[in-house]
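STRUCTURE:
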């Protein structure tokens, strides 16, 4: 019994951090406006700092779109994502950019959405508002 209680207490910060992935530890207006211009500004905790830096290094090839930014905005957003991203790398190095929508976390939470996407009832998996009707680009609840 003590072991179970000890494990529950020891792991509770991890559960809280994971459950609050949509609540960034700090706000960044440039990240929110630039990344939120085309899709929701995905919270930094959904990918590791390394994954975000990989994405930021190839903005000219951002999932089929040129999302290039001027150097100062790119640096500000990169610094923010480096500070705020998850500590563990979720994806290995590959030719493809890391995708939140292919992470284990996303897949486990969105099996129904993935089925609808495969049937053509959702255009893209990153369109959170297709299912989360009360969401907007500023805030998102899991």
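SEQUENCE:
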């Amino acid at each position: 019994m003590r072991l179970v209680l000890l494990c529950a207490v020891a792991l509770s910060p991890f559960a809280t951090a994971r459950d609050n992935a949509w609540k960034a530890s700090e706000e960044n207006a440039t990240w929110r406006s630039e990344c939120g211009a085309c899709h929701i500004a995905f919270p930094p905790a959904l990918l590791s700092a390394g994954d975000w830096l990989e994405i930021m290094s190839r903005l000219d090839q951002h999932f089929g779109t040129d999302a290039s930014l001027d150097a100062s905005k790119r640096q500000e957003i990169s610094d923010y994502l480096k500070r705020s991203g998850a500590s563990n790398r979720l994806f290995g190095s590959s030719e493809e950019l890391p995708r939140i929508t292919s992470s284990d976390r996303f897949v486990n939470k969105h099996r129904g959405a993935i089925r609808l996407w495969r049937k053509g009832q959702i255009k893209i998996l990153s369109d959170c508002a297709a299912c989360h009707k009360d969401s907007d680009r500023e805030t998102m609840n899991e």
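REMARK: The two ends are 32 Å apart (CA to CA).
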